[in-house]
Design brief:
The chain has about 100 residues and is mainly alpha-helical. Helices cover about 60% and strands about 0% of the residues.
C-alpha cells in the first residue's frame, strides 16, 4: 500500500509519474510529505511548477527532509516557488 488517497486516473503521464515518485521516495517521512502534497495538488500545478517539482524530486531525501523540517536552510539554487508551496503545505499537515 502506498498511502495515496487519490487515483492517477485522468492524470497525464507526466503527472502520473510524479504522483508515483512522490509516494515511493525510499524514506517514509518523505513519502508522507510529498505523497500527500501530490495527492492534494498534482492536478492543479502549472507546467512551470511541474518542471520545478520534477527537479525537487531529484534531490536526495536526506537533504530535502532537512529543508522541509527546517533543520537546514535550502541553498539559494533550490529556493523555488514549488519548494515554498511544499513548505506551506507541510505546515498544514498533522501527523
Amino acid at each position: 500500500m502506498t498511502g495515496t488517497t487519490r487515483s492517477s486516473e485522468g492524470l497525464d503521464p507526466r503527472r502520473r509519474k510524479l504522483l508515483f515518485r512522490s509516494w515511493h521516495r525510499g524514506m517514509r517521512e518523505m513519502d508522507l510529505i510529498l505523497g500527500s502534497f501530490a495527492d492534494a495538488r498534482i492536478d492543479a500545478l502549472t507546467d512551470a511548477e511541474i518542471d520545478q517539482y520534477e527537479r525537487l524530486l531529484d534531490i536526495p531525501d536526506t537533504d530535502l527532509l532537512r529543508w522541509i523540517t527546517g533543520e537546514r536552510d535550502a541553498p539559494v539554487s533550490a529556493e523555488t516557488e514549488i519548494l515554498g508551496t511544499v513548505l506551506s503545505f507541510r505546515r498544514t499537515m498533522s501527523f
